[in-house]
């Protein structure tokens, strides 16, 4: 049976860095025979966790799932059918976008059981990947300590899905025309060059990750 690989775009932009890499990852999965689906979280109206803890109430009707009902609900209900999931987000103020954060609260937290014996209520182990895009260079990201934040998200994904992998795309091109925006701290020509020379390599890595996820046993 065909595998299903789902990609969740946490960027409000549907054609820029994050969405493009996610599309490449899904193309890789499709090339390996998977059925793919791309979801733009920004298209859905939803809120973050309300801390009702109904997902943890013993014997409650919402045990292990989010009790809130909004446009995210149908997606949350069908995601466990996926055989692999890609999360993708731009880095906003050192973390995932608000759309992705709110989504992760609603999707991941219900499966994180407060139990020593059952750490995850997710019905199966699947490959989970996180694609991050950010303006800073790799060196700046390391200096600021972004990895510490990515590690925390990694930890949550590993706990829920059993494994996680990440791809970092740094020093991204943020606009088509740097001269139209206050951006004198950047070298516009270097950014353009980076887009032409390095971004395709990141796309190849995303494609390979998608292929690998679709072929995972
Ligand atoms: C609200 C906002 C906050 C941002 N904060 C950061 C940041 O803390 N660090 C960083 O490296 N880039 C930051 N950026 C830049 C984006 O992460 C970067 O341009 C990313 O590649 C955008 O993804 P997109 O092209 O898919 O929209 C920020 C951009 C916005 C709009």
What does this structure look like?
The protein is an alpha/beta fold. The chain has a single domain (4-174, 200-215), classed as Rossmann fold (3-Layer(aba) Sandwich). It is built from 7 helices and 6 strands, in the order βαβαββαβααβαα. It has helices at residues 17-31, 73-78, 98-108, 138-144, 146-161, 188-197, 199-215, and strands spanning 4-9, 35-40, 84-92, 95-96, 128-133, 165-169. Strands 1, 2, 3, 4, 5 and 6 form a 6-stranded mixed β-sheet that branches. α1 (17-31) crosses α7. The longest helix is centred in the last third of the chain and has 17 residues, at 199-215. It is globular and about 60 Å long. It starts with a strand and ends with a helix. The mean pLDDT is 97. The site of flavin mononucleotide has 17 residues, from α1 and β3. The site of flavin mononucleotide (FMN) has 17 residues, from α1 and β3.
Question: Secondary structure elements and their pairing?
Answer:
Blueprint: E1 4-9, H1 17-31, E2 35-40, H2 73-78, E3 84-92, E4 95-96, H3 98-108, E5 128-133, H4 138-144, H5 146-161, E6 165-169, H6 188-197, H7 199-215
Parallel strand pairs: 1-2, 1-3, 3-5, 5-6
Antiparallel strand pairs: 3-4
Helix pairs in contact: 1-7
